[in-house]
Structure formats: structure tokens, C-alpha cells
Design goal:
alpha/beta; D-Amino Acid Oxidase, Chain A, domain 2; 7-stranded mixed β-sheet
């Protein structure tokens, strides 16, 4: 039985960053991936990455075709298409990726630092010894042979399936399951258009509760007249089939007339606040497995990379001390919540507002600026946005026909402020976690009762 310092389950963006960060510190690292090596990087997603995420984790811009198209911002369309918010800010400057090439580039980073790759290897479950995760039981996809691998720390970066997290014992204090209402079912296609379109500077997002209840449609223009187009619907109640919605409402647009399907597929996106706790004895949860997708725009590549980087640094420090218990791994929780998780928690509240907003309310609210571009920008950046007395008076006059929309917006802003203030006081150690978690649940239950139920 082979032994490692660190086993990373999943060679996606989170897993590769965790493997690179730990391997470059001289640790013996094994990266397990169920895909074949040449398929690593292929994933159903929007393929967008903010430039600032590369800087945060200390990576240079790749130069080998990984970045297909530069984007300058986002355009958000009202359901009736009559109002368009244009969001331009440095956090929205970035790239549309060649997802496979980008994944291969990150993989090479990890392997060049000494990580060992076991591709075509499926993780079955964690090995638990004395309330510590001590390795994983895996299976070779090629031979069917079971493999036992031991490690001092196991990292679950296996994506939405979260193959380690879902099988952890309850006493680890990590959520095993995620509610359906916090997940979006997505369908996406890469299509070749008949000709290059001029509208290629911005990513486009379309709100429409009839087409995408609780979600949105995206159209991202890649290079060479290619388009990444898809939609996500909230898996709440009786939700529609996303592929059917895509073919009924999106492919019928004139833009796609005569276009060719290059590839397509469906997947699931957890769009909620991060797991309240992402570490246990000998284990850390990263990326989609830890619900680190942005709750509003569904972007997960940047947060996943950040989680891999932060968890990797924390694991190195813990192993240097010779202690990989939950308390030693706890700084990963605190650092992530400080850098990104607090913002995501606030946006989870904002998501609840959008979840139950009707098309006519969205049309009116955007048209008469009950909700402004600046509001959306500040919310998406995790910044406070206040409704001043003068501003509120103006909005009330504009919103007399939809006063309940304005009231709901004001309520949302207050709830977001409370949630972010609470997350800024994330516990410094596991001993204070239960008290913090109870307050977290109370805040989100209040938000759900006032905004959804």
C-alpha cells in the first residue's frame, strides 16, 4: 500500500492548485482523477475566468491558446430585453478559456512540481481511522482493481459529486448533502456560428423566470465565431428540463440560425453560500465540492483555484507542525471566508431575492432603476450598498406602482448586511463553531422566510 503526505481527489482547477501548492513545498502528493489524462480540463461550464483570480493565486497568464477571448464586462438583460445593465469593472475583466487546454496547463503545473497523477482512477470512499481521514479506497477504471492509498491529509476536489465529503462521518462536522433548492441544473452547448458577430466584448446574461426559473441564460462569445451558450434552472419544486428550455427558447434566436453544434452537455452547479465548515481531521473540501460557486453568476473557476491555493498553504503549515487535526486545518476556513466566502454568503441572500422575483417586477425594477447597475456591481463585489434618504425618496417616486419590489429590495439589503457582518466574525477555532453555525442558520432561515416562503 503506497503512502503519501497528501492525496488530492479530482484534477480540476481546485485539485491542481492544491496539488501544485503542496508538491512545491516538497510534500509527496498523489492526484487521483477518474478521467483519462488527456481529458483533464474538459468540463461543462461557462469557461469564463476573471483576470484577477490568476494574480491572487500567483499564476502568470498562460500563452499557449488557453485564453481564447478577452472580455471587458457583463451585460445583463431584463426579461423583456428592453433594459440592459452594463457592468464594467476590473473584477469583470478576464477571459473565455479553452477549458481543456487550461486544465492541462494547470495539471502540468502540479506535475512539474512533483505531484504523481493516477488518472482513470475513481475514488470510492475515504478511509477513516480513529476519527481521522487516513486515505482513500479507489478503483482503476481500466482494470477494475481496487486500490488502497494512505495519506496524512486527503483533499476532496471531486466537484459537485463530492465523493469524499458525502461519505464522511457526521461527527466530522462537515455537511454531507446539499439541498436541491441550492443547486442549478445546467445545459450548455459550444456552437459554431455562420459568421463572427460584432457583439463580442461582453458576456451576456439574460434573466427570465419563464425560461430559467431561479437562474439565467448566458451567451459568451469565444474566438473564431464560436459561442458558449447555456442556461441554468433552480432545482426547486417542479423545475423544467434545462435542455428542453435551451432548444425551445435559446436556439430559436436568429443568432443561432445555421449554427453547428460542436459539443454540449448537462451538469449541476451548487449556487449557495460555502459550506459552513470545510475541514475535518485529516481532510479538506475544495471547489464545487465545498459549494464555492458564485451564487449569482455561477462562476466557479476562480473560487476553486483560490480554495486549492489556500488549502494547500494551510496543509503545508499543518504538516510542518506535525498536526493535521481539524484545528490545525481551520485557518483554511478563515482565510477563504475572509477573501471570498463572506461575499458569497451575502450574494446567497441576493439570490433569494432574484429567485422569487416575477418577470414583470424585474422589467419594472430595471427599467425604472429601483435596482441599478451600481447596486448589482456593489453586490457582486461583496461591497455595501446603501439606500440613502434622498436616493430612497427618488426610488419610491419611481416605484409607486411596484412599492413591494422596493420594500423587498430594502429588506434584502439589510439582510445581506447582517449576513456579511456575521461572516466577518467567522470563528477562530472549531470550539466556537457550533455557536456561530446556529446564528448562521437562524439568519438564512429568516432570509428564506422573508424573501422566498
Amino acid at each position: 500500500m503506497e503512502k503519501f503526505d497528501v492525496i488530492v481527489v479530482g484534477a480540476g482547477t481546485a485539485g491542481c492548485l492544491a496539488a501544485k501548492t503542496t508538491a512545491e513545498a516538497g510534500l509527496k502528493v498523489c492526484l487521483i482523477e477518474r478521467k483519462r489524462r488527456e481529458e483533464i480540463g474538459e468540463k461543462i461550464c461557462g469557461d469564463a475566468l476573471g483576470e484577477h483570480h490568476l494574480k491572487t493565486v500567483g499564476l502568470e497568464k498562460p500563452q499557449g491558446g488557453e485564453l481564447e477571448k478577452r472580455i471587458e464586462g457583463v451585460k445583463i438583460y431584463s426579461p423583456d430585453l428592453k433594459t440592459v445593465f452594463t457592468i464594467e469593472y476590473e473584477d469583470y475583466v478576464g477571459y473565455l478559456l479553452n477549458r481543456r487546454l487550461f486544465g492541462q496547463w494547470l495539471l502540468k503545473k502540479a506535475l512539474d512540481k512533483g505531484a504523481v497523477l493516477l488518472d482513470s482512477t475513481q475514488c470510492l470512499e475515504p478511509i477513516i481511522e480513529k476519527n481521522f481521514v487516513a486515505g482513500v479506497l479507489a478503483k482503476s477504471v481500466k482494470t477494475g482493481e481496487n486500490i488502497r492509498l494512505k495519506a496524512k491529509v486527503v483533499v476532496d476536489a471531486s466537484g459537485f459529486l463530492a465523493v469524499v465529503r458525502r461519505k464522511l462521518p457526521k461527527e466530522m462536522g462537515i455537511e454531507n448533502e446539499v439541498a436541491n433548492e441550492d443547486v442549478e441544473a445546467c445545459y450548455r452547448e459550444i456552437r459554431q456560428l455562420k459568421q463572427e458577430t460584432e457583439k463580442t466584448k461582453y458576456c451576456e446574461m439574460y434573466l427570465n423566470q419563464k425560461v430559467t426559473p431561479g437562474g439565467y441564460t448566458w451567451i459568451f462569445y469565444k474566438g473564431g465565431a464560436k459561442v458558449n451558450a447555456g442556461l441554468g434552472v433552480c432545482m426547486r419544486g417542479k423545475f423544467p428540463n434545462p435542455k428542453n428550455q435551451f432548444y425551445k427558447y435559446i436556439l430559436t434566436k436568429p443568432l443561432f440560425e445555421g449554427s453547428l453544434l460542436l459539443n454540449g452537455g448537462a451538469w449541476y452547479d451548487p449556487t449557495r453560500r460555502p459550506l459552513d465548515n470545510m475541514v475535518g481531521n485529516g481532510v479538506a473540501i475544495l471547489g464545487d465540492a465545498a459549494c464555492l460557486v458564485n451564487p449569482i453568476h455561477g462562476g466557479g473557476i476562480g473560487p476553486s483555484m483560490l480554495s486549492g491555493y489556500l488549502a494547500g498553504k494551510t496543509i503545508v503549515e499543518a504538516l510542518e507542525k506535525g498536526d493535521v487535526g481539524q484545528k490545525s486545518l481551520w485557518p483554511y476556513n478563515r482565510k477563504y471566508m475572509e477573501m471570498y466566502g463572506t461575499k458569497q454568503a451575502g450574494l446567497d441572500v441576493f439570490r433569494m431575492l432574484l429567485l422569487t422575483s416575477r418577470n414583470e417586477d424585474l422589467n419594472y425594477g430595471m427599467k425604472y432603476r429601483l435596482l441599478t447597475e451600481e447596486d448589482v456591481l456593489k453586490a457582486s463585489l461583496g461591497k455595501e450598498f446603501h439606500l440613502t434618504i434622498t436616493d430612497t425618496a427618488k426610488r419610491v417616486l419611481r416605484g409607486l406602482k411596484r412599492i413591494w419590489v422596493l420594500n423587498k429590495l430594502r429588506l434584502t439589503v439589510n439582510l445581506m448586511r447582517q449576513v456579511k457582518a456575521h461572516y466577518k466574525n467567522y470563528p477562530e477555532n472549531p470550539e466556537d463553531f457550533e455557536k456561530w453555525k446556529m446564528k448562521t442558520e437562524a439568519l438564512f432561515n429568516e432570509a428564506r422566510s422573508k424573501l422566498i416562503e
